[in-house]
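Notebook entry, structure prediction.
Reason for the run: the old model in the group folder had no record of what sequence produced it. Starting over properly, with the input documented here first.
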Amino acid sequence: MQRFFVGPEQIVQGKVAFSPDQSRQIAQVLRMQPGEEVGVLDNAGWLYVVRLDEVSARDVVGTVRSRRLAPGEPRTKVTMYPALLKSDKLEFVFQKCTELGVSAFEPILTDHVAVGSTVSENKQARWERIIAEAAEQSERGRLPQLHPVTLFPQACEQVRGLSFIAAERGDRKSLRAELSARVGAGSQRPFAMNLLVGPEGGFAPEEVDLAVHYGIIPVGLGPRILRAETASIVGATLLLVYAGEME
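New structure, fully documented this time:
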């Protein structure tokens, strides 16, 4: 069933009014007809089954047939802190980590990020669309939060919960080993976990030291050096596996 996230103002007295972009998708891309059903998510954890009543390229209106709690949301909140990358690579991270079950993203500006990296309103809006489309496709119940770009020291200062920083250089325990020790069998499921992943070239040694100062655990991701976007996906997968969210 095709799914759409809508704002609370779009669901009124059992009727759902889809946005202009959603209406165009329903009418012109999906070519759906009155009487067909779609799933509607309110980003508060509820899934509505909605019958389409009126379908046009400008306006689509439907009637709520049923409501239930949306499955697919992890209990452990995983937040990814990826360094700013080239647009296509960072978009890939947002898309795939959303599909896996990441709850929030906070891009970070680090020493090795290319000088002049900026985030325009258009780019932010595009990232939000990519996350929303991935959440709809993967049957998530909530949209992952996308926080504004943060300077690395500020991210370290504000991070909460069991937190790791991917530091491929040096004598580090692997993320898998740290998770096995801290979130293994018999351990209490953590409420929140976080992973900071650097840009191409990784974090500067001073950045790793600062992270350690704030209680963030430096870890490796295995014996091979991964690209930044690959490291984010591997790291997110390990966090969710050890939290029992991939069962």
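Summary: The chain has seven helices and 14 strands.
The old model has been moved to the deprecated folder.
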